[in-house]
Amino acid sequence: MTVRLAFFASHNGSSAQAITRACESGTLRADPVLVISNNPDCPAFTWAKEHKIKTYCLNEKLCRTAENLDLQISHILNDHVIDMVICSGYMKLIGTKTIQAVQGKIINVHPALLPRHGGRGMYGRKIHEAVIAERDTETGITLHWVDTEYDHGHIIAQHHMSVDAHDTVESIESRVKKAEPDFYIETLKKILSEYSTAD
Question: 110 an active-site residue?
Fold first, then answer.
C-alpha cells in the first residue's frame, strides 16, 4: 500500500517540499497528492505545481463559515482518497470533519517542545521569543497528531536542542528550521513502516 498524502501549508511549506522530494526519491513510501492552503498567495503552490501536485485555496472568506470550510476540505480529502495529512506551517485550526475524513491521521509540526510554548497565538518567532524570555535551557521540535485544539494532540516524537546564553531568537529559529525537514522525514519513515507491516 502506498500512502496518499495531502499537505496543509499557509506559506512556504518547506518541510512539505522536503517530504515531496523524499517521496520522489523513494526514501519515503508515499504519494504526494495535493496541497491545501488558506492563503491565495501561498508560495507552496509554486513548488507543488512544479511537482504536478494539485493545489486548492480554501478559507473562511471563500467558504463563508468555518463549518463550511471544514466540510469542503473533508470532501476534497475524501474525493482524492487521502490517507494522511501533513501540516507544514498551517496557521488555522483544523475542523472535526477534516480530522474524521482521514481517521485522525493528521500530523502537525511545532517548533518547540510541547506542551511548552504551544496553543492559540503561539507560532513562528513568538515561540522562540518565549524560549529566550523564559530562559529555557532547551527547545526543539514536536510532531503530534492533530485534534480540535491548537498544539494539543498526542505527541508522536520530539527533537531536543540545547539553548545557551549566547543564543538569540534568530539563532534558535535558524537551527529549528534547519532540523525540521529531516526530523519530519525520519519520523514519517517510522509511521509509514507501520502501514507496510499492516499490509
Answer: yes
